[in-house]
Amino acid sequence: MRALRSAADRVDGHLLTALALATSAVLVTTFYYPVGTVLIEAVVVDGAVTGSVFAAVLRDPFYFGEIARLFAGESPAAVARALLSPDRRIGIVGFTAYQAALSTIASVALGLPAAYLLARFEFPGRRTVRSLTIVPFVLPSIMVAVGFVATFGQRGTLNAALRAVGLPAIDLMFSLEAVVIAHAFYNAPLVARVTTAAWESVDARAVETARSLGAGPVRAFYDVVAPQVYPAVLTGAALTFVFTFGTFPIVLALGGFELATVEVFVYRLARDLQYAEAAALAILELGISLAVLLAYLRYEADTAVQSRGVEPLPRRSLRPATASVRELLPRVGLAAYAAVAALIFLAPIGSMILASVTGGDGALTLEHYRFLAARQRTAAAFQVRPWPAIRNSLGFAIASTLIALPMGVVVAVLTTRRYRGRKLVDAAAMAPLAVSGIVVGLGLLRGLVFGVEFAGWRIAASGAVAIVVAHAVAGYPFVVRTVAPGLEGLDRSLVESARALGASRVRALRDVELPLVWPGVVAGAAFAFAISIGEFTATVVLATGADAYTMPIAIERFIGRRLGPATAMGVVLLVVTGCSFVVIERLGGESRGL
Fold this sequence. Notes:
The protein is mostly helical. The chain has helices at residues 2-39, 52-58, 61-64, 67-71, 76-84, 91-120, 126-132, 135-138, 141-152, 157-164, 176-199, 204-212, 217-245, 249-254, 262-271, 275-302, 325-356, 367-378, 386-415, 422-429, 437-449, 463-488, 492-500, 505-516, 518-534, 537-542, 551-559, 563-588, and strands at residues 44-45, 48-49, 121-122, 316-317, 452-454, 457-459.
C-alpha cells in the first residue's frame, strides 16, 4: 500500500509537467504547424528557398504606398517628400493601420465614460451591466454586420427616424465611418471592462491621504487615480488595435473591397490560389500584430496591480443628494453619453430584432421565421438549413470549449509562475490572438483536412474536426486572460501551507488555487463557448462541406439573398450567444480578467 501511494505521489508530482507537454503538443499540431506551413509558402516556391515573393510585396505600392519606394532603394528624403505630398498613397497596409488607429480612438472615447459610470456610480442593475459589457466583443461579427445594415442602411431604422422628423436621410453603408463605428461597437466594451477593473483596484486610502495633504479632487485624481487607470486604458487600446488591424468580416460586409484591409486581401489571394503572395502578406500582418501584442504583454507584466487588501473607492448614487452644479454636471454628461451609446450599442441589435419581425410594408409579421422553417423542410442538400446550422454551432462550441478550457488553465498556471523565460512562454501562448483566422483556417484545411503523410501513414480529418480545432485555438487565449489574473493575485502563503502539509503541486492547484479562482474559470469557459458560436473567419475557409456550416455561415449565405431571413437567423444566434453569458452572471460572478 505504501509503495502504491508513493508511486501515486510521483505520478501526481509530474502530472503538471505532463499536462504542459500535452498542451504544447496540441498547440504545435493544431496551430504552429498549420500556420507555419502556410507562411513558409512566402519563402519556398517550387521547392526552392527564395525571398522574391516577400520582396515583391514590400516593393509593391499597392500594398505599402509611398513606403514601398523605400524598400525599392529610394532615399528616405525622397520617400518623406512623397509622404508629405497631397496625392500620397498609403497602400493597403497603411489603410489597415489607419482604420485600426481610428477604431482604437473611437473605442477608447466610448469605453472610458462607461468605465467611469461603472466604477464610480451605484445604480440598480450595475453588476448586470458590467457583465454585459463584454457581450458585444464576442457577438458574431456577421450578425453585427446584419444589425448595422438594418440600422444605418438606406431603409434602416436611423433613416426612418430621420425622415419621420423631416430630416434628410444619411448613407453610412460601405464607408469608413460605418467600419469605425462597428469596430467601436465591438471594442469599446472591452476598453470599459479592463479600465473598470483597474479603477476598482484604486485604494481609497491613498486618495484620502492625498486629500489630507492638501490636494484637491482634480489633483488627487491626476496624482493617485490616473496613474493606476491609464495602463488599463493602454491595454484596451493595444488589444483593440490588434483586433481591428486583423479585421475581416466587418470590413467585408460594411466596407466592401473598396475599403479592404490586409486580412481581406489575404482571403482573396488564398481563394484565388495565390498562396505565395497571400503568405507573404500574412507574414507582414502577423509581424505588425505580434509587435503590438508583445508590447502589450510586456506592459501588462510591468504594470500589474495587486488588488489584495485594497479598499475600493466608494461609489456614488446616480441620483444626487443636492442640486449643485458639481453634483449635476457629471450626470448630465453621462446622460448625453447614454444617448450616444444607445445609438451605437443598442440600435443595431434592436434594429435586427425589429427587422426580423417586420415585412416589406413595415407591418409586423413572422414571415422571416416561417421562411426558416420552410427552408428546414424543403431545402436541397446543397442549401443551408437552420437546424443543422444551430446543431453544428452548439456541437462545435461544446467540443471546442472542452479542449480550450484545460489548455487555457494549464497555460494560465505556467504564465503565473516565476521562472526564466516566462514572458516568452506567455507571448508564444498568446500568438493566436495576433494570427489571422484566415491563415489558421487555410493551414488546417491544407494540412489536417487534405491530409498529412507521416511515417508512411496519411493522417486526415473531417472539416468538422478542423473547425473544432480552429475554434479551440481561437478561444483558449481568453481562458488564459480570465484565469491568470486570479492566480496572480492569490495569497501565495495558502499554496505554501498546502505544500508544507504534503500536498503535491497538482494537489495544491486542484484543492486550493482553482476553487479560489473558480469564477475566472467559469468566465473563461463562457468566453470560449461564445467565441466558438460566433467564429466566422476560420470557419468560412473550413466549412467546405454541406454538413459543416454554422449559424454565422448561414447568416452570411442568407444575407446575400434576403435581409429578412438573415435577421431572423441573427436573432436565433443572438439568443444562443447571450445565454452563454448568463453563466458569467449567475455562476462566474465578476472576473477581473477580460
